[in-house]
Design goal:
Blueprint (H helix, E strand, L loop, with lengths): L9 E3 L2 E3 L8 E5 L3 E2 L9 E2 L1 H19 L3 E4 L9 H11 L2 E3 L1 E2 L10 H4 L2 H14 L10 E7 L6 H17 L3 E5 L5 H10 L7 E3 L8 H9 L3 E4 L10 H13 L6 E3 L19 H12 L4 H17 L7
Parallel strand pairs: 3-6, 6-7, 8-9, 9-10, 10-11, 11-12, 12-13
Antiparallel strand pairs: 1-2, 4-5
């Protein structure tokens, strides 16, 4: 008997979508609600009550001006995640939002990590993916941002990466990582693939902070995605350097492995507070890329097709 293969599905905070229904660009690594305030200064915060209206207005404006169709929201356990707030923002802005599960890098680990082994952590993630975040019933659509710092993950970070990989294998979700300042991406990739995750379901984060085109080529050559996802964060890296690194990766033939985003991670980055905003990619960086010879077809590939393929495992013909 002939059976039809299941169609790829994009799991968003307000329901499932066919990836082909997303016709505009995506932001592949963002935060809409966040609390990383370990210093007590309130800077690394996007509070839904204080900042939700500004976040929503920015996304709605980008939908109207640039056709923004999707935001991959990588705030996970221990990062101030609020699935209900994400659903409100998605509905009000009329932009699809994918929520995440997993754990960030070690300084932000929750107590459950020290107390549990890999299998127990895997079960926690699989349960949340299956039944939803807390009592909301909202199911994560990606594992991320799974974190490590330094050239090699710590023991605790290794445990989390292994749990994320096993949860990915069990549920069919993809894995997006946080490689602190771009370092350690190859080690993350080896851990994840050793646990059975296919490279095309892995995005290695913050590679635009690592000025090493050879590493970018090596990641892309495996089939994994190379995330240039801190665009506009000039205090970490200039956009001129980011563009040089991107052009090198494109020249090497890896346009189909690139993901782009801005990683808005504090309220001071919002446009209402004088920051670059979620639209910096579209308003500033991509025009520079076009001026450097990157055509609209490549931009559509990097900003729409690639994020959808990463999230769902879909082929080009399904996007």
């Amino acid at each position: 008997m002939h059976t039809t293969a299941p169609q790829p599905v994009l799991r968003t905070v307000v329901g499932d979508l066919a990836p082909g229904s997303v016709r505009g660009p995506a932001l592949a690594h963002e935060h809409l609600v966040l609390d990383l305030d370990h210093r007590g200064d309130g800077a690394a915060v996007l509070h839904p009550d204080r900042h939700g209206a500004a976040v929503t207005a920015e996304l709605a404006s980008l939908r109207e001006e640039f056709g923004l169709g999707l935001v991959v929201e990588l705030t996970c356990r221990g990062m101030g995640r609020d699935a209900a707030a994400l659903a409100r923002i998605a509905r009000d802005a009329q932009v699809a939002v994918v929520a995440a599960t997993g754990w960030y890098y070690e300084p932000f680990h929750t107590p459950e990590i020290a107390a549990a082994d890999v299998d127990e952590l895997t079960a926690t993630l699989v349960r949340e993916i299956g039944t939803g975040i807390g009592s909301t019933g909202i199911r994560p659509g990606v594992l991320g941002e799974i974190g490590s710092h330094g050239d090699m993950p710590t023991a605790a970070e290794t445990k989390v990466l292994r749990a994320a990989a096993r949860a990915a294998a069990a549920t069919g979700l993809s894995v997006a990582t946080h490689a602190q300042l771009g370092r350690g991406g190859l080690a993350q990739l080896e851990l994840l693939t050793t646990e059975g995750v296919e490279p095309h379901r892995i995005s290695i984060g913050h590679q635009d902070l690592l000025d090493d085109p050879a590493v970018h080529r090596e990641i892309a050559a495996t089939g994994a995605y190379v995330a240039f996802d801190t665009v506009g964060k000039d205090s970490y890296q200039s956009d001129d350097t980011r563009l040089r690194l991107l052009l090198a990766l494109l020249e090497a033939g890896h346009a189909d492995r690139v993901l782009l985003s801005c990683d808005i991670s504090r309220h001071g980055y919002l446009r209402t507070e004088g920051g670059q905003g979620y639209g910096h990619l579209f308003r500033s960086f991509l025009p520079k890329a076009r001026a450097a010879g990157v055509d609209d077809g490549l931009i559509d590939l990097m900003t729409r097709c690639n994020p959808l393929r990463f999230l769902t495992g879909a082929g080009v013909e399904e996007i």
